[in-house]
Design goal:
Length: 398
């Protein structure tokens, strides 16, 4: 198909209002495109776990004029302590390892991205794409609830279990590589009286932690455990089965584990998923392109997923603008710009997962990881070009 012979793309459907989707909508609008965002959840997802930013992602937030507002929501996380089964601290985990240069609750980030885009972007909540049929000039899209619509381009920013990817590239099993760990995250009262810090307990093949943040008057806890493969399909949606599985894995553990298991059962919010990566030979097919976790998830153990989503959105919108809406040229350039950056983060995600299966880390090992994390924040190989925009870079937070 010769894209340059067709009308340049203007209307863009974005599936997913997590991090990548709203960020892309922001930049597309700045470049004169007309984005629509469809989100499966009935409303914005609040709360959630903490996510952090490193390196160039801070520049993207700055270029969006969001850095100061995000910095106001900084969790101000301090170092955390590793404890043994009797609750005795035996090492300190420096915050740079798990909280990056700036850390916020994911719900706060999503809300801020939504607020800066809602006036100029159509958001459709509580709906999902069910079919995509491409022809020479655009894509016919059908939805679970809404009437069919037509767009010039479609972007799958719908996360690890992307439906856009499944519809266009095939089943998830082909692209999602399980890292051998499952994670559950939930909220609870700060009954340990922690202030901007956390406690981590690690045993072979399993770990648990509790953290408090400035932005969160309660606390958040997580269980991580080794798992051989992805859970059966029915377990992916069955909270009671997931919690039984966790209770079995941690049945013999000390420290606060028995209490945390009880807290988990009564938690109002409960997130559970595999730690996984998405590996694809190409991120686009025709007029459909993938962004963020949907196309190149690096896994929670990389600590880089949010940064990738933000930078991916910036580069994809910029390349579309630079190519004058020629999606073939733009998608190729987007991939060229980001491949190396993503490959590096995926290697980090795998290394992080391997550490999980090793012995409990000593202080020496933790310090070495911290030194590396601080260094890597400045060496990610991605260029942020201006793409013809006069971008305001207000205040880089120290
Ligand atoms: C436990 C955990 C801890 C993490 N910690 C960190 C961290 O410290 N630092 C970091 O950088 N990253 C972290 N990450 C990774 C980070 O959360 C992701 O990489 C990031 O959110 C990716 O953004 P995204 O927009 O691509 O996907 P998501 O944030 O997953 O957003 C996808 C959106 O699409 C929606 N959606 C799904 N299916 C459909 C559909 N069919 N139709 C419409 N909408 C749909 C979802 O509801 C969601 O809103 C962590 C992840 C996990 C699981």
């Amino acid at each position: 198909m010769n894209a340059t012979a067709t009308t340049p793309a203007r209307t863009v459907l974005i599936s997913g209002a997590g991090v990548a989707g709203p960020a892309l909508a922001y930049w597309l609008r700045r470049h004169g495109f007309v984005p629509t965002v469809v989100e499966r959840a009935p409303a914005l997802r609040e709360g959630g776990y903490a996510v952090d930013f490193r390196g160039e992602a801070l520049d993207v937030l700055d270029r969006m004029g969001l850095l100061e507002r995000i910095a106001e929501q900084d969790t101000e996380m301090g170092d955390a302590l590793l404890v043994d089964g009797d609750g005795r601290a035996y090492a300190t985990l420096p915050s740079v390892v798990f909280a990056g240069e700036l850390e916020v609750l994911k719900g706060d980030l999503t809300r801020m991205l939504y607020e800066v885009t809602r006036d100029g972007v159509e958001y459709v909540f509580g709906d999902s794409v069910t079919g995509l049929t491409e022809d020479a000039d655009g894509v016919e899209v059908t939805f679970e609830r809404g009437a069919p619509r037509r767009f010039d381009l479609v972007v799958g920013a719908d996360g690890l279990h992307s439906r856009t990817r499944a519809l266009v590239f095939g089943p998830e099993e082909r692209y999602v590589r399980h890292l051998g760990i499952h994670t559950a995250v939930f909220g609870l009262d700060n009954y340990l009286g922690l202030e901007n810090t956390g406690r981590l307990y690690a045993a072979p093949g399993r770990a648990a932690n509790v953290f408090t943040t400035r932005a969160d008057s309660g606390a958040r806890a997580a269980f991580h455990f080794a798992s051989e493969g992805p859970l059966e399909r029915e377990d992916r949606h069955d909270r009671a089965r997931q919690q039984r599985l966790i209770a079995e894995r941690f049945a013999d553990d000390g420290w606060e584990i028995p209490r945390l298991l009880r807290e988990m059962e009564r938690a109002a919010d409960f997130f559970f998923d595999a730690n996984a990566q998405v590996e694809m030979e190409t991120w686009s097919k025709g007029r459909v392109v993938l962004l963020g976790d949907a196309g190149y998830c690096a896994g929670p153990t990389s600590g880089r997923g949010t940064s990738q989503a933000l930078i991916g959105a910036y580069v994809l919108a910029g390349e579309l603008a630079e190519a004058g809406g020629d999606h073939v040229a733009a998608f190729a350039a987007y991939e060229r710009e980001l491949r190396g950056y993503v490959t590096e983060h995926q290697a980090m995600g795998r290394e992080g997962a391997e550490r999980f299966f090793g012995p409990a880390p000593t202080q020496e090992v933790l310090d070495a990881i911290a030194a590396r994390a601080a260094g890597q924040a400045r060496t990610a190989p991605v260029r942020l070009r201006d793409y013809g925009l006069r971008v305001a870079r207000a205040a880089r937070v120290a």
